[in-house]
Amino acid sequence: MTELCKDLVLLPLGGTGEIGMNLYLYGWGRQEDRRWLMVDCGVMFGDERTPGVEVILPDPAFIEERRGRLDAILVTHAHEDHIGAIPWLAWRLEAPVYATPFAAILIRQKLVEAGWEDEVELKEVTPGEKLTFGEMAVEYIPVTHSLPEPNSLAIFTPAGTVIHTGDFKIDESPVIPPEFSFGRLRELGDAGVEVLVCDSTNAGKEGRSPSETEVRQTLERLISEAPGRVAVTTFSSHVGRIKVISEAARAAGREVVVAGFAMRRVIEAAREVGLLNSGHSFLDEEAFGYLPREKVVLLCTGSQGEARAALSRIADDVHPRIALERGDMVIFSSFTIPGNEKAVGSVMNRLAALGVDVIVNSPELLVHTSGHPRREELGTYYDLVRPKRLVPMHGEMIHMLKHAEFARSRGIEDVLLPQDGRMMRIVPGPLEVVEEVRSGQLHVDGRLVVPGDKGPVRARRKLSFVGIVVISVALDSKGNVRGPAQIITEGLPEKTLEDEYFEDLLLDAADDALDQMSRARRRIDEAVIETLRLAVRRAAAAEWGKKPIVHVIVQRV
Ligand SMILES: [Zn+2]
Ligand SMILES: [Zn+2]
Fold this sequence. Notes:
Rossmann fold, Ubiquitin-like (UB roll), 3 domains, 8-stranded mixed β-sheet, 7-stranded mixed β-sheet, 32% helix, globular, binds zinc ion
């Protein structure tokens, strides 16, 4: 009887309907005493909608309240959208973090920087290893993606097996190990897979993603034929690409100079796990100055147009040690993450203005390939594991919808779109929403973690639109006005259309409003505050067409 009441639920707290801040919870047991495993704990990056906030975390409140029943935080791979929240959240959750060696190096560095390395237990997993947590077990299954050691996870329960793909593509000729685990996934399929929880990023695209080997060929040709300097920018964690660029440079008799802290750190991590050997030498920025033009390949960060990255400073010609000029070439061995188009376009234009030849990815000139599966690859994965049911994840709503449609076209009838905060029973089937829980975002604001949408960005967004007015009035306890009102404004126009100072206009409005109040009303602070606030907002709106944020301070003298 008790066995019958146990089920496996999936609860995403981030990662559905958006690309970023992946956090999935798998819970096995009876509702009242489920044991939980967390898969990934990533961040998303802020934009103009989150002024002052660069890093966004999933709100872990649900699992934090149940942390005694959280057995592990399992990391599929080392991209920021999968590990970035660990230094902010892991210590609060009090569960050990499991990661493969490359990811573990990068996570450890993050924990050290955040000062939590002694509080968070970090355990290394060997790809292929099987871990047991009570009645659940998890196997790390190597796949291919766009950085070292990507894994799918097989999650075993007494009621059946679920496969969580993590981020993957199917690259049959990867440039760094491992190979994609066709054999192991087919074995799991033979044994029976209940549910596939699957990457949706490229589910709208037909065909297959090109292999890294095809990118290698283009980069080799471009680098060997270039007359001047070649700079290549790519994602700093893309060790396979870094390796290919290093090899292409060597073949062309060029040295590789690295600019960018994040890339240097990844190169060190890749060396530690044996993915880059001593044959790959990477010189410091200083070397750029003394190498002849035709002897250098610059490997740099900044493919997303980041203002502080090396490439943006080179484009502005303000980098202390690196300059490019007419006849040099910059290859964007990357794609532009949605939202970054303006920044990337600006860097490209500034480089072009220097006379630099800017190369971007295209089907004719393949200098980048995605790490996510297109439809043919999804189909191959389905064929290997033959799931009974499918949950699309890791994608914007449009990608997940396309994925659901594709899965159904491939004969998987039971498909359910997940949503952050929505708990689904996935084993036994059919897929069904069983509970809604708290979910949302937290913002990293300076050194603090604050609520997301209800936190300080709300006011900042408003401030950026309308500015602020502070009015101070002095009254005595009987309600008599004692001295003139004071005003401070920020972010308002200086003068009205009639050339009147806004501050004067608003002060007059405040004084008039105060005059019209009865003395009895003026004895009540709240009444003064609300009357003046409304009067000032109305006066501003009449002249300006916009209502500022207004604060009134009542001083009783
Ligand atoms: Zn991802
Ligand atoms: Zn990834």
